[in-house]
Amino acid sequence: MPVFLIRRVLTMVLTALCLTFVVFYLTNLPPNLEKLAKSEASSRMSDADVESWIERNGYGRPVLVRYGEWLGITPGWTRTEDGVTTGRCIERGQDPATAPLRCGILQGDWGFSTVFKQPVSLIIAERLGATGVLMLWVMIVMVPASLLIGVLSGMREGSRLDRGLSIFSIASTATPEYVSGVVLIALFASTSTGLSPWLAEQGWISGKTLFMGTATSALDSGITFWNFGLPVMTIALYGIGYIARMTRASMTEVMTAQYIRTARLKGVSFGNVVMKHALRNALIAPFTVIMLQFPWLLNGVVIVETLFNYKGFGWTLVQAAGNNDIELLLACSVVAVFVVLMTQLISDIGYVFLNPRIRVS
Amino acid sequence: MTATTDWDPSKPILEIENLSISFFTRLREIPAVMDFSCTVMPGEAMGLVGESGCGKSTVALAVMRYLGKNGRITGGSIRFKGRDLTTMDDEALRLIRGSEIAMIYQEPMASLNPAMRIGAQLAEVPMIHEGIGREASWNLARQIVADVRLPDPDRILKAYPHQLSGGQQQRIVIAMALMSKPALLILDEPTTALDVTVEAGIVDLVKDLGRKYGTSILFISHNLGLILDVCDRLCVMYSGEAVETGAVAQVFDRMRHPYTQALFRSIPLPGADKNTHPLVSIPGNFPLPHERPPGCNFGPRCTYFQAGRCDAQKVPMVPLAGGGRHETRCLRSAEIDWDKPPVAAKAVARTPVGEVVLKMTDLRKYYEVSGGLFGGSLKKVVKANETLSFEAREGETLAIVGESGCGKSTFAKVLMGLETATSGKIMLFDQDIQDIPIEKRGTDTVSSVQMVFQNPFDTLNPSMTVGRQIIRALEIFGQGASDAERHDRMLELLDLVKLPRAFADRMPRQLSGGQKQRVGIARAFAGGARIVVADEPVSALDVSVQAAVTDLLMEIQRKNRTTLLFISHDLSIVRYLSDRVMVMYLGHVVEMGTTDQVFSPPYHPYTEALLSAVPIADTRVKKKRIVLEGDIPSAMNPPPGCPFQTRCRWKSQVPGNLCDTMMPPIRVLAGDHQIKCHLSDAVLAGMEPVIRIAAQ
Ligand SMILES: Nc1ncnc2c1ncn2[C@@H]1O[C@H](COP(=O)(O)OP(=O)(O)O)[C@@H](O)[C@H]1O
Ligand code: SF4
Ligand code: SF4
Ligand SMILES: [Mg+2]
After folding, report:
1. Residue B30 C-alpha to ligand 1 middle, in angstroms?
2. B561-598, pLDDT tens digit by residue?
3. Is A262 within 8 Å of chain B by CB?
4. pTM to 2 decimal places
5. What's the CA gap between B285 and B275, in Å, rounded?
6. How many angstroms separate the CA of residue A80 from the nearest CA in chain B?
């Protein structure tokens, strides 16, 4: 097991390096740097001024060297002009002698966001926390619901229950978040359309709408069913359908396995066959899928956070990309890569745990 | 637990009467079993024998009332202890299943839950049926595991199925069936997936336990020898019907149905010989359930068929005059002269052997394997073949026998060039080929060494017509100058393997197993192969088809003077067709000699055990019972000294601890008979034959 872990972690680090380099390269292409110069200094700079700004701020050197600086493995650049020494690692007004030699993500220095005017590490930590809360609720809703649907429809293939649930799950995976989000808002969070006006008329809800169409308040005044219901549902719906389909496929296959016949012919009741014999075997495949869903959820998070104006990680990513905030964008990609690779690692370990056949003896 | 109140133990425990079962598919109703009757008395072992697809498993599953979604009992009754199972509701069935009737299946691995510990799977049974606690159930499980003669019950109870060998798994399935001492035990081909020596152990176990607990047994098999070993009575099935039923001795020695007779004539019994007493195969094919002929189902293949009589109406099952509940489903049973020997298939002269065409010297093949998924750096060496030396001559049949994992298939792969040898020499027609992989071999070499595989189903391309596949082979071997020429050659090959020329346009799925194997043979001979390696070519086929395919191979061999390397675990067929035999164990050749030398003493101790394990369907044969304890050691971790020392019963006859410490040398006895064993000449000379045929 330790060998396996070490090997996996090494591959992870290598993958992360490659991917961040690609992002680094793309965000640091000359047009981007030019835009950065214009937004940081003055938008009416001449080409020569841009050139010299780029040079003065350390963006002019080879990409590989700067990537090293960003990582924190090569010393940050310094530059002495008119007796004043500036440098990557020298804060404004700091004595160059006391400044550290290297400052990159390895030293915990993630840079400074040009949009939010805050250290990137602070922003990421805060926004990631917000998204974490959203994801947690998505998981709490999605996993049990989808497994339940999958197991129920898979245990008696072709039954009426199976057909009904299958239609639901196909429909829900076939609908992307930006469609389901809008539909849900129209249905539950509009004062003029959908259910809310009718419910309000009946006097069954106190507010104007059943749910709120924005989740901004969740961050300031706490999560409620009211402000969080729709974003969570929007993301979960998509995943529910997908995972339920996987679980169903896996469950129907398990139910035709010979060891299920053995169990039935031992006199185990149908309920116990499902619970004790089929479930664990049937969950092996969906478990991997759930874990691989995380990266997918990130995708949904971007859409849903933007749609519901929830200031989480996805929202930040959109802001960073839209405003050419290089350091923030880089940090976002590192985090995303890390999340994806971590979930893969967890899914591999969990798979081994669930499936005794490949557990090390 | 269940109501056994008004059942009188002198009455049958299981009574099946006029049972009919159909499967309903989108296209049609498939009548899988028709008008089937049989009776099992308490403590009796009843055999159910027949070719695959004749409905044996369907009957067994009907008794368990587990026919799947599309199967239905369309008529008749199944009475268990006097109660009709066909009308019982789910809850009542659940109480009977596993407690009063238990079932054991063909595939032990597939019938155990891979994600549950053995102990939990066993303990479940008494917890359901006797309502006893977890602790007590586990104790009971431990006891039964010891009962099925598994070592170290505590470790086994905590293990997962995949950690056990096939034989151990089957013992666990048996243990599971015995957990609540059922009155009836159904075994559906319980040993088909196992090696003969393991099979012998399991069969012994079943018989002993049946006797110990007084359990009635319904034993399903296609192997008549096993039925003879295990059962008191048997029922022969053909195409969904019982055709003959009676006590084992009656049916084996005084069979009264042409199908039973044909079945016995198509299996190689001691005394059969490819040259002087060839097997008689049953002509034609098994009818599909929805294509059964009018009248007698066996009619189209029956040598005693009488038009106008046999095909006039359904033939009923009738009791025979001799009594003893011996019944047959044949109109002419009283008219046929049952003792008349078969119309002798022409005896042929023995093919003289020619030059040496293949010579292997000290061939070794080691595989390096990494230690599983996670222990990447730990390389282990599997010694699949150790110092193999032999010669094969033109026109000769050399059989290679041994249990699974002994290195038979590795040897074939090295010869074919699918793997290269680790060391040693292979001389093929005066050419060294040990280091030349198949891609680098000339077309000549490739086409002259060909292979026939065990599973004809896997080796044919399912989306290409039979003719096309043979033509492809001809193209690869560079045969024929033009397409027309190759097409003609293809038709000739179909003639050679006795398939109608019309089959050229058929798809593989339209062929039966035996027909597919014929196509495989045609392909192997497409390039004029001079050496053919047949890896278990008939073991996936039914007995009646086996004979035909074997005979075909022999005939082509005779015609082309091909060298046949016949890999098999079935000693009956090996004795029937081979000139020389090579016995392998854990990568070593432990014995080699002519067929007569190997099949009569002195034996290598392993050969002796192997011979004793083979079930023989002949009541005159008396066998010495030698049951090998334990499993074959892993080739990754072979024992020191003699490879067979962990299971050898002769070990004590060797002075000192020679067997534990020193690899025995190859001893050459009279007539170039080689044995790899430390036993002294005197002990070897004193060995008794394992098989004796009692004088009639
Ligand atoms: N679920 C099924 N659906 C349709 N046909 C089936 C089904 N199970 C078995 N059969 C058919 O019933 C016949 C008897 O099969 P089976 O009892 O398995 O034979 P055996 O055990 O003797 O090999 C075969 O022709 C087979 O194709
Ligand atoms: S009834 Fe006729 S065809 Fe059928 S087995 Fe008897 S002799 Fe043969
Ligand atoms: S060498 Fe010893 S252990 Fe090996 S087969 Fe001969 S007697 Fe048995
Ligand atoms: Mg069967």
Report:
1. 9
2. 889 999 988 888 898 889 999 999 988 899 999 999 99
3. yes
4. 0.78
5. 25
6. 53
